[in-house]
Specification:
The complex is a heterodimer of chains A (about 325) and B (about 240). Chain A is mainly α and about 325 residues long. The C terminus of chain A is likely disordered. Chain A has a single domain, classed as ABC transporter involved in vitamin B12 uptake, BtuC (Orthogonal Bundle), CATH 1.10.3470. In chain A, α2 crosses α3. Chain B is α/β, with parallel strands linked by helices and about 240 residues long. Helices cover about 35% and strands about 25% of the residues of chain B. In chain B, α3 packs parallel to α6. The chains are: A mainly alpha (about 325), B alpha/beta (about 240). Chains A and B meet through α6 and α7 of A and α2 and α3 of B.
Chain lengths: ~325, ~240
């Protein structure tokens, strides 16, 4: 029972991280039916944006009040990258065959990884560490430190930060999509882009908003990852991005709440598989196998995903 | 005094296929102008080009004296030209009221709520069902919503594409009566219809389109009594 509760906590933590990234895949897909395979890199850039902010303005200071500024820096870095990416790599290909933007995405992905790997340590305006290997991430007080003990269940502070971040982001997203004028315009574009234009909605602007929203959540996920793992690296976006994409498909690609449900499901299944699958196929080396096995099972029996692909939509 | 809408030598093509082959027509303020013709005559293509969803290969479109041939669709609606598209195209998973508010998306003035009231006044059923997802509506109700939504932009010129398509005779009459009401309230209307009888009865002016060209024009009454129109569109020998 303790083992189950512990894995549930671990699963929810991992799942929250997946969910935060998965929203970015699904929001963009809901609007322009594009799988933005470079989205994992936006998550990575978020983590480096937070680190850079810390190194430039707060080096050595681990007080909690620094965290909001790191979050701001992360969001700024991620959103800027995502918006430029849309403008340069995707918009010119809007009416090209579907394979073209996909290849463009892979190119952007490699470009961003290599840019961080090669140039992070040699930027002229600051004294950043070399990023060819792992870089330590500032362990901010209160959100890191001694874990909480609930009976026999250990809860890391960074886990609470991650789960809390998902709850706040989901609430904010719900408000944005359903109750703001721009949010409603987003739903309109995802349901019928031509008619949305007849309403006076600038579709290009809404696409930019979709990229920015996804980047914001990915940036926060990047910080959560840095706090949990204590270091970050230029390759961190690859597997996290792939898992989050899996989560988005699992929940129903295009459906914002599907991304949240899919992320949490994937996280919990991974954690449980590590604990409860016995023998050769058990344990943590096999967790990715079970994660993708789940994806295949869902795709075979429920191709529309858990909540169904219903585009950017209400819960 | 120039016309409110002037379409001149308009040509529109899908790839190599010309759908509209150089048509010209005018809509004056206060008129109801009908474009009639069979399927594939180019009626819908013409409207979609005027509202900026399609780009013409040649020709020009002027609205209130301003050349709008290359203006973006989302900017055209702000000039006072609304388009209620073929097939109604309401946003199915948004509520009735959200659909109506989207009609006023481009507006920044304070009269939006008053116009929402006006739309509810025009179609009381919309008020009754304002919290319902629009996709659960019948065809007639969706048509009312589509027209209400178009009116929410407070247009000077309203383009209606086949508003009577697929409706029961009673509902068709209701919609057509509303067209007259809107005209009396001061909205100029460009009406595309396959139902020639209903469209021409209300029209101050009409144009008959055949495979991308205007083959006949005149007042509504003239066209209704023309032998060609009676044979081709009203099913009389």
């Amino acid at each position: 029972m303790d083992a189950f509760a512990q894995q549930l906590v671990n699963g929810l933590t991992l799942g929250s991280l997946y969910a935060l990234i998965a929203v970015g895949y699904t929001v963009v897909y809901g609007i322009i039916q594009l799988i933005n395979f470079a989205h994992g890199e936006i998550f990575m850039i978020g983590a480096f944006g937070a680190l850079s902010t810390w190194l430039i303005f707060f080096d050595g200071n681990l007080a909690l009040w620094v965290l909001p500024f790191m979050i701001l820096g992360a969001i700024l870095a991620s959103v800027t990258t995502a918006v430029l990416m849309e403008r340069i790599a995707y918009r010119p290909l809007r009416h090209a065959p579907r394979l073209a933007p996909l290849i463009s995405a892979i190119g952007i992905s490699i470009f961003l990884q290599e840019a961080v790997r090669l140039f992070y340590g040699s930027v002229p305006f600051a004294d950043f560490p070399d990023a060819k290997q792992r870089v330590p991430f500032p362990q901010i007080e209160v959100v890191t430190g001694p874990a909480f003990q609930l009976g026999n269940v250990t809860i890391q502070r960074s886990a609470l930060f991650t789960i809390g971040a998902l709850i706040m982001c989901a609430a904010g997203l719900w408000y944005f999509v359903n109750l703001t004028k721009t949010g409603r315009a987003m739903q309109a574009v995802s349901q019928d882009p031509d008619t949305a234009r007849l309403m006076g909605i600038n579709v290009n602007r809404i696409i930019v908003v979709a990229f920015a929203v996804g980047a914001t959540l990915a940036a926060i996920a990047g910080i959560a990852q840095g706090l949990q793992v204590t270091n970050i690296n230029f390759r961190m976006g690859f597997l996290a991005g792939l898992k989050a994409f899996t989560a988005a498909v699992l929940g129903g690609i295009g459906n914002v709440w599907g991304a949240v449900v899919g992320g949490l499901t994937l996280g919990i299944v991974e954690a449980m598989a590590v604990q409860f699958i016995p023998g050769t196929f058990g344990g943590s080396p096999w967790k990715d196998v079970w994660a993708f096995a789940l994806l295949i099972i869902v795709l075979v029996f429920r191709p529309q995903g858990i909540l169904g692909a219903r585009v950017v939509d209400r819960a | 005094m120039s016309a409110m809408l002037e379409v001149k030598d308009l040509e529109v093509a899908y790839g190599k296929i010309k759908a509209v082959k150089g048509i010209s027509f005018d809509v004056n303020e206060g008129e109801v102008v009908s474009l009639i013709g069979t399927n594939g005559a180019g009626k819908t293509t013409t409207l979609r080009t005027i509202s900026g969803l399609l780009r013409p290969t040649s020709g020009s479109i002027r609205f209130k004296g301003k050349d709008i041939t290359t203006v973006e669709a989302h900017d055209i609606v702000q000039l006072g030209l609304a388009h209620s598209p073929e097939g109604r195209r309401i946003f199915p998973r948004l509520t009735v009221e959200e659909n109506l508010y989207l009609g006023a998306f481009a507006r920044k003035d304070k009269g939006i709520d008053a116009d929402l009231e006006a739309a509810y006044e025009l179609f009381p059923i919309l008020r009754e069902r304002r919290a319902q997802p629009a996709g659960t509506f019948s065809g007639g109700e969706q048509q009312m919503l589509a027209m209400g939504r178009a009116m929410m932009s407070r247009p000077q010129l309203l383009m209606l594409d086949e508003p009577s398509m697929g409706l029961s005779p009673i509902m068709m009459k209701r919609i057509m009566t509303t067209v007259t009401t809107l005209q009396q309230q001061g909205t100029t209307i460009l009406l595309v219809e396959q139902n020639a009888q209903a469209a021409l009865k209300r029209a101050t002016k009409g144009y008959v389109l055949e495979v991308g060209s205007i083959v006949l024009s005149g007042t509504g009454a003239e066209l209704l009594s023309s032998d060609d129109v009676r044979k081709a569109y009203l099913g009389e020998d």
